[in-house]
Design a protein that fits this description.
This protein is 70% helix and 0% strand. It contains seven helices and no strands. The protein is globular. It starts with a helix and ends in a 27-residue tail after the last helix.
């Protein structure tokens, strides 16, 4: 159990750093279309959900490979954590911006970190409790559906607010994800 806790802490750090770096990777790659499938291609809330989803999915594969024999519930627990953390990003973002009327960089960073912490905390606790083990197939299917949505909607986003760039100013103080070119 001590080793699982260490891997969970390392996962939090891995997803935090990798997710942060991936925010810039699409621009750094010269807008390479393959890179854009896995990193934000614009400043929409949907695209920023990738900051948690893909790094945590990668780290989950590592943890599952390492710990599945010793902790069979880890698969369902990690998939639940991925889904929860990814969906908390728009939930928290729209909750606070509806109250405050605009977004703030510090709060957006806080949402990202908080979502990661909740994801890994749930994954750790649910691995130990074995409560979701019977839902492994359903959770895996849900992760695969979300993965497919990210891949499809990157190139063909629906006309919905979550897929649009939020109305933000170019001030780094008052906007979390300034529009490209600011």
């Amino acid at each position: 159990m001590k080793h699982l806790k260490h891997y969970t802490i390392i996962g939090i750090l891995f997803v935090s750093v990798t997710g942060t770096l991936s925010h810039f990777l699409y621009d750094w790659s010269g807008h390479h279309p393959i890179v854009g499938l896995f990193t934000p291609v614009n400043e929409s809330v949907w695209e920023h959900m990738k900051l948690l989803f893909f790094p945590m999915l990668l780290y989950a594969a590592i943890m599952i490979g390492k710990w599945k024999r010793q902790y069979p519930p880890i698969v369902s627990a990690l998939f639940f954590g991925i889904l929860t953390g990814t969906l908390l990003i728009p939930l928290f973002y729209y909750a606070y911006t509806s109250v405050l009327g605009k977004n703030y960089l510090i709060l957006d960073i806080g949402i990202f970190i908080l979502s990661i912490l909740i994801s890994f905390w749930l994954s750790y606790k649910l691995t130990l409790s074995k409560k979701l083990e019977s839902y492994t197939f359903v959770l895996c299917a849900a992760v695969c559906i979300l993965l497919t949505c990210f891949l499809v909607f990157t190139r063909h986003p629906p006309n919905d607010a979550v897929f649009q760039n939020p109305a933000v100013s170019c001030s780094a103080v008052t906007s979390s994800f300034p529009p490209k070119g600011c």
